[in-house]
Amino acid sequence: xxxxxxxxxxxxxxxxxxxxxxxxxxxxxxxxxxxxxxxxxxxxxxxxxxxxxxxxxxxxxxxxxxxxxxxxxxxxxxxxxxxxxxxxxxxxxxxxxxxxxxxxxxxxxxxxxxxxxxxxxxxxxxxxxxxxxxxxxxxxxxxxxxxxxxxxxxxxxxxxxxxxxxxxxxxxxxxxxxxxxxxxxxxxxxxxxxxxxxxxxxxxxxxxxxxxxxxxxxxxxxxxxxxxxxxxxxxxxxxxxxxxxxxxxxxxxxxxxxxxxxxxxxxxxxxxxxxxxxxxxxxxxxxxxxxxxxxxxxxxxxxxxxxxxxxxxxxxxxxxxxxxxxxxxxxxxxxxxxxxxxxxxxxxxxxxxxxxxxxxxxxxxxxxxxxxxxxxxxxxxxxxxxxxxxxxxxxxxxxxxxxxxxxxxxxxxxxxxxxxxxxxxxxxxxxxxxxxxxxxxxxxxxxxxxxxxxxxxxxxxxxxxxxxxxxxxxxxxxxxxxxxxxxxxxxxxxxxxxxxxxxxxxxxxxxxxxxxxxxxxxxxxxxxxxxxxxxxxxxxxxxxxxxxxxxxxxxxxxxxxxxxxxxxxxxxxxxxxxxxxxxxxxxxxxxxxxxxxxxxxxxxxxxxxxxxxxxxxxxxxxxxxxxxxxxxxxxxxxxxxxxxxxxxxxxxxxxxxxxxxxxxxxxx
Length: 668
Ligand code: SF4
Hints:
The chain has 668 residues and is an alpha+beta fold. 39% of the residues lie in helices and 12% in strands. The strands form 6 sheets. A 6-stranded mixed beta sheet has the order 2-1-6-3-4-5, with helices on both faces. Strands 8-7-12-9 form a 4-stranded mixed beta sheet, sandwiched between helices.
């Protein structure tokens, strides 16, 4: 019997209209866990580097995490993996909500799409009955609207729907997949869904999931629930409000936006507005949020309520959470009323709330600087907010300049030329980042930005505080109940971290400590992404309920796999390395591992090189960032080194790179 997982994937060939239920190998679960781990294995095995994002051979994998559908609180993530049209590297975007557990209850761990449907279709997965159905009547419909129409059409109010909007249909490089209570937004996975001709995947499942040791498992789940209650009643002192608790940053509950509005950048990630948050603004924004926020909502099996339904006057209701509350507002230099209203359109169109506003602000900056002209913006309104609506419409329809902008700032800048590249200044590996510009280099964040292959900084941060506490006594209080650390040394790292002087940024945490911290944070994210756990209860917040000490117990009792901390760390390292290997085989190298040039004002080139050198070594990568033969062997990934040797990426007797390449140059 298989525990926690169903042991079956749905393989759907859209070109031929073929549907297969395929039993999976339990050994793969032991080696790669599930979710992101097994997705990476499938992509490595079946999508060679020659396959372009929009080729029929590219796969689009929707995976429930290993523990999704079990009673583990907050374990509800769908991990969507493919090759990104924007970065041309592996994309693995996550969505919360209810979709992944529903898929498990229907009897599948993953839905793997290949080929392309000649006409727009949707998939209807109703337990054992799976159909490819005509979706021509849904063409051009909004993502949330589509979900509602399909529930009515199928007479299935409880079905879970993952759908794309117009942006996905038109292959906008930052198109999202929306599913009511969450979305998988980063890296253009919605564009790949649109390219495959799939408007939506509807799932209804009513089966059970087996758990290996139910009594033990429920005890673990109860401990987690108890801890969540404790943490909610005892916010962490000494850190900014959004870092005090658990869950996704509680943006929909909070009214105090001083920190974001005065520290993050406005416009095209350019302008910091230090005195923005006045009493008057606070009052107005509070009124706006109170007026439009209709309900706080959670994902499946979670008490946290991180999201809210937003009902702007005269517009349909939609879901919002996290920092997308402010991204449109700040990009347009506007107010919250505008931000919440345009986000409704953006959600229906299905675009990423981080990239889309930056792309529009970038276009307007090019216009202000004469690189784009009136000819590029025929009939664009003269007011700033009107311009954003106008641009959003053009982008999702790929009309005129919108067709260029729909590829994101990196590709658009190259196409526009005439100095436009300087304005696409906030990318890592061709992908728009948080609009944040800081002063002093932070070595831990440098490594996360440079090497994080989720290619979105917020997704590998967490666990270790972002800044030192001013007083040692406060640091001592912080480490007292810090049982989540994988090793006691992390407590000392934090205790000795001072805001000024010798033990401060950029030379403290020192190079070795920075490597340890980044590795720990990254490991926790990768474990979450294989298990299907919400990062908001594990890898993202300080002192979370799930951590390296209780996860092995969850896997043992839940999936029936004999697990301990060492084995779990090794498994996470294995598929993390496999993700790297996929990207290396697609041309990514050291020169791609870099944060935006202007992310920090004070840069330290020698230190940055040393950080990369040491981190690469620590991870078992050579000086080009390529996993070495020896480290691949230790992880049981000899098949990767064999392929690297065959392709001339590694030489037979040596770990040195045989061929220098770059995702920046090769794929351009
Ligand atoms: S913590 Fe928030 S984002 Fe995470 S599963 Fe719970 S409700 Fe969803």
